[in-house]
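Q: I have two molecules that I believe assemble together. Could you output structure tokens for the complex as a whole instead of separate predictions?
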Amino acid sequence: MQINVNGEKKECPTGSSVSKLLESLDIDKRYVAVELNHKIVPRIQFSEKMLQENDSLEIVTFVGGG
Amino acid sequence: MEDTGLKLGKYEFNSRLFVGTGKYQTFDIMKDALEASGAEVITVAVRRANIGGKPGESLLDYIDKDKYTILPNTAGCYSADEAVRTALLAREMGISDLIKLEVLGDENTLLPDPVGTLQATETLVKEGFTVLVYTSDDPIIAKRLQDAGATSVMPAGAPIGSGQGILNPNNIRIILETLSVPIIVDAGVGTASDVTVAMELGCEGVLLNTGIAQAKDPVKMARAMKLACESGRLAYLSGRIPKKLYANASSPLKDF
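A: Yes, here they are, computed for all two components at once.
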């Protein structure tokens, strides 16, 4: 199925969780926060939150800043 | 006069120098500079994670989270809503409830939008954040931010990254006299003496990034900033002599 991640269209297997998606993108789960359709997904729900067709995700992390 | 730690809500710090993690040539230089600065609080920004290609190194791999308190910022936000959203995401990272709130008004000056800053402060205080808020050196808006529940008000000495120092010490003095929350000068610091000036005025701390990160030798400059901060604080606590128009001899004026 198709989903939207950080403004880019991505394919992901049906029935993927947020956790699975992060793994498939090689993203370190410790260092990110995730919004699913403009709502924050609490970290503890990463593995149970299932993705649907056309979901929109924002995955953010900390970078250098002042 | 004995100094105490810097209290910010439920947090307390010994170092009064807060430093950023942006604009370093390498993470290694950054790490050494953070160490040399003696800072206990370091700022970071929130951005989209890189999802294409190889995962790069993470900033957080270079930061000892037991040693430093991480202060996420809302840099790059131009509305209260954006800043609140960024703060909520930062908190979700599970590191702290501290937020350095910035709501900017314009890309050229990077001056804060006072209305948006006030709105976002109110919201984030209600959400339970410890809000350290970046503002201009206008004493009136500074007071409004304190009244809205900010834990610290952080006036800019000069525009962000400009290195011009404390352009209007009079306004900083008025802010110090009018407000009771800790005042931290945030932005504009170019060199060590700028930090000292801020601390001598009675500010509780200084937050800076570019002045260290873009110096020719960031690690050495970090140490200079550390010493300047301590020096200014000590001078403030010591109580300087008043400025006088005429001379006042240091040696006895009597004849032999």
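A: One point stands out. The longest helix of chain B spans residues 218-238.
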